Amino acid sequence: MNTKDKILEKSIELFNNQGVHNVGVRDVARALEMSPGNVSYHFPKKEDLILALMEKMSEGNNFCLEAYGQKEASLLSFIALYEGLFTNQFAYRGLLIGNTEFEDVLRNRYAYKKTYEKRVHQLQNILIGLRNKGLLHLSEPDQKMFLAFLTFFGRSWIHESFIYQQNDSAKETIQHYINLLKWQLSLIATEEGKLQLAQLA
């Protein structure tokens, strides 16, 4: 592992355990037994470090979505997609929870609107594919509403989990929210779709 990757790995570990606002570049350097200058060489400011981690998190999300695209559309692969997305988000939870520095970088340096629009378009195509396979009952208004639910759920689950699931493992936490997603899907699933969901029980 090169120095840059070591810095990123240690940074997200510290951010997850202590919160971004409690960890500075010097703390990362100390944990790695490096000079602060060595860390600053790769990441001149803390916001550069946050931005690099945001990009890695986005790459993880892209990997999950691309993997879904290689599979036949089914509710089984849809749930697997969300298990992957939630696992990736959980790995970067320190960035996402109660972090004004992350929000500043998101607003000022990261093309979030463009990324958000791309994600919505990807999810819309996934839902259309599931509907066309006869797995979901989705009128156009239903599709818009379920898409809105997915984008909201995808952003908010991690925040709620740290209020109500504090004592659960990562696996238990993710499974709880996957079960909520499965229940929502069951409300709009066709008979064939419900049979697929039953395989996940």
From TrEMBL:
| Family matches, as SUPFAM superfamilies | Homeodomain-like
Which Gene3D superfamilies did the record assign?
Tetracycline Repressor, domain 2
DNA-binding region located at which positions? Answer: 24-43
Indicate the segments forming the HTH tetR-type domain, all copies: 1-61
Task: Write out the entry's keywords from A to Z.
Answer: DNA-binding
Domain of life of the source: Bacteria
Supply the InterPro entries for this chain.
Homeodomain-like_sf, HTH-type_Tx_Regulator, HTH_TetR
| GO MF annotations, alphabetized | DNA binding
Q: What is this protein called?
A: Regulatory protein TetR
- Gene source species: Haliscomenobacter hydrossis (strain ATCC 27775 / DSM 1100 / LMG 10767 / O)
